[in-house]
Design brief:
Layout lengths: L8 E6 L1 H18 L4 E7 L3 H10 L5 E8 L12 E2 L10 E9 L3 H12 L4 E9 L12 E5 L5 E2 L15 E4 L1 H4 L1
Parallel strand pairs: 2-3, 2-5, 5-6, 6-7
Antiparallel strand pairs: 1-9, 3-4, 8-9
Helix pairs in contact: 1-2
The chain binds 1-O-pyrophosphono-5-O-phosphono-alpha-D-ribofuranose.
The site of 1-O-pyrophosphono-5-O-phosphono-alpha-D-ribofuranose (PRP) has 20 residues, from strand 2, strand 3, strand 5 and helix 3.
Length: 180
Amino acid sequence: MKCREDEDVAQIIADEKALRLAVKKAARWADKNCGSETVAVCILKGAAFFFCDLLREMTLPVQVEFLSVKSYGDSFKTSGNPRLGDLSFSVEGRNVLIVEDIVDSGYTIQALRTAFGALGAASVKVVALLDKAVCRRVPVQADYACLEVGDEFLVGYGLDYAQRYRTLPYLGVLKPEIYR
Ligand code: PRP
């Protein structure tokens, strides 16, 4: 069904069917590679949709936490200094699975790996829907990424521009005239 936000999308790069398949594969990877006592941490807000779909596909029981992290705000560029929200839940001695929508510059997962390591996590793994390796500024990577993408501005399935487009059920390239 068409909605007004569809009009701002130049091209769909992963439709609902492709996303479902990608999520299933990520769930099989997570089932195999996350140990017992895993805490899955959803990095808000972008990863919310991927997180819920992924965890419902996984057969491994995990505990669920949500963490607010802001790097971009409504800006087009990373601040380079992600602000982490409430880290008061316990990860000591547990395996942490960070669930991200996208690894872009890499500053966010770098900060998260450091923070969870310092809090005594037994292991820290990152599963991301998207890997934008071409934009990386620090040498970090996800342990598993569903899709490698180029340097386009992507929206939908959790990803936003100025808090819009997150609820589109597909991943699409935003028309440049919207953000230029
Ligand atoms: C986005 C995205 C990742 C992060 C990746 O979050 O959801 O968490 O940026 O970027 P990086 O690799 O360059 O650090 P954002 O700060 O836009 O917040 P949001 O998820 O609420 O949109």
